[in-house]
Amino acid sequence: MPLDLLDRIMIIRTSPYAQEEIVQILKIRAQTEGIVMDEDSLSMLGDIGVKTTLRYAVQLMTPAHLLSKINGRDAIHKDDVEEIFWIILRCQNIRKNAANPKRTSTFTNNFNPFYHVYSFSAVFRD
After folding, report:
1. Can you give the pTM of this predicted structure?
2. Helix, strand, or coil (residue 65)
3. CB-based contacts of 52: which residues, under 8 Å, 6+ apart?
4. Percent of the chain scored above 90 by pLDDT?
5. DSSP, res 112
6. CA of 79: how far to CAs of 23, 48, 73, in Å?
């Protein structure tokens, strides 16, 4: 059997990352990019990574870092991550509504499954 055919038919099982693994990956990524994060923000990004994807959680780090700099802090706090998450969610809502002008839903009426996943009062309690 040709090796390239064998490579194509071989099935490799994978499993999703656990929250602890995602947090560890985020720590490494933050260290590589020179970003300082507190434990609460890492935990929140870990939750987001578990409920969505690791890529989504990593992509929230840079805007949260910029927001923390704007607010005069050197480290990313939980509030920065939460604010960036909602800003991006609102942008997604605006984009969806612009694509469908007849749509009358509001932000809280939810266009997006992320809203149900990320009820911050339920998921990210103090």
Report:
1. 0.67
2. helix
3. 114, 117
4. 52
5. S
6. 17, 14, 12
